[in-house]
Amino acid sequence: MPLIPIPPAYIFIYSNLSGSLTTTVTAYCGLSGGFDIVEAQAQAACPRDGVLKTLMFKARANTRSTDLVITIRKNGADTALTVTITPGSTAVFLDTAHRVAVARGDLINFVAVGSGGTGAVTGFTFSVELE
Asked: For the segment 25-64, what is each residue's pLDDT rounded down to a tens digit?
């Protein structure tokens, strides 16, 4: 009897925040929600070995006059998974081109970095898949 391939298990990590990201900000966002100016407060241990992929970010309101860059961080360092939120846009921003290998226990979080300008991104949803 031939073996039937079983696809890998997926974990979908999702958060919906009601706060705002203002003009000049570096905010560390936890995978389960909430953000902080101290990265250690936002980091979460990865539950298993795998690959992070498909970063998604959507703002409910965006009055920023400059870009806001959202990046997945692993063990305190930026990864290739990133999206750039353009001024005024509330579109869905996706990074489906990059994949990041992770090991159980790696510390994972998002970082949002803005530089100057005016306005804020208010109320947002972000997610990433762990394959």
From this structure: 788 887 766 677 888 888 889 988 999 999 999 889 999 9
CA distances to 3, 7, 10, 62, 65 from 57, rounded to whole Å, are 38, 26, 19, 12, 18
Mean pLDDT in residue range 7-31: 68
Domains of the chain: 13-130 (2.60.120.40)
- Burial readout 32-59 (b: 16 or more C-beta within 10 A, e: otherwise): eeebeeebeebbeebeeebebbbbbbbb
Question: Contact 100/72 with Cβ under 8 angstroms?
Answer: yes
In whole angstroms, what is the distance from residue 46 CA to residue 118 CA? 35
